[in-house]
Amino acid sequence: MKSTIKTLALAASVAAAPFVTATTASADGHGDLTYVLVSHAPDSDTWWNTIKNGIALAGEQVGVNVEYRNPPTGDIADMARIIEQATASAPDGIITTLADYDVLQGPISAAVDQGIDVIIMNTGTPEQAREVGALMYVGQPEYDAGFAAGQRAAGEGVTKFLCVNHAIQQPTVGERCRGYADGLGIELGDAMMDSGTDPAEIKNKVLAYLSANPDVDGILTLGPVSADPTIAALQENGMAGDIHFGTFDLGEEIVNGIKDGTIIWGIDQQPFLQAYMPVVILANWDRYGVLPGNNINSGPGFVTADGLAKVEEFAGEFR
Description:
The protein is an alpha/beta fold. Helix content is about 45%, strand content about 15%. It has two domains: about 30-140 and about 270-300, Rossmann fold (3-Layer(aba) Sandwich); about 140-270, Rossmann fold. The protein contains twelve helices and 13 strands. The strands form two sheets. Strands 1-3-2-4-5-6-12 form a seven-stranded mixed sheet, with helices on both faces. The longest helix has 18 residues, at about 270-290.
């Protein structure tokens, strides 16, 4: 299943590259396979710790070597170069996000053309995964998740909203805001804010927007990077618990916000599965030639105050 080039080049690993932050192999497993996961996440985004834990545990359980690489600042062009570097090291498989199809489809397709099995996870779509030649897609359909969130928010009384987008440079993330607007039956317009990633800046932008738009009765954030400063903003202006607040993803502050009523629900895309399942799937594909017949939707799932026990126990680790 491996090409001659792939087998020979495996010895020329780039494990010493600065983007490698985790390598795991099981003492009880075969240790004969190496998979590289490349994400678009900057070093500052702690949400991805769950992804790192997912590949580490899968690598230990199925006995393969795993590596995690990412662009330190979240730059997509830098990510494209990392995929090219990973391809040059000829691993047995690459697991990668597809945060920007236009920028990343070339490097990913080149990896496939070299004979490397690829699974797309987290961002992108099943259709895009097929177009680049990947084996499958494991993740949350972003527009569908946003649409479901919008429908739920509409039923809970939201009529005008703010969507705080901390990853405006990643088109697929914006699909959450677009889906939310459509689920509400409201034009997106200028309701999607380019918040940046600096916590103080996000808080100030949210405060300014709510001050200028007092009729906003709903907020959607797209992950802890934007949710945590938004919590701080609502605590500062006295709106915590009085404005409908939903968010994507989970984290310690989000869980606390759900517990105290600041946040109505969090949408769990189960990032652990997004990392864990591709490693297990690739190992079984390489060893036994078996492959699931369909893409895997890891979410969305709504987490409310009624279902926090397991989430709180493992938030930021496996949830």
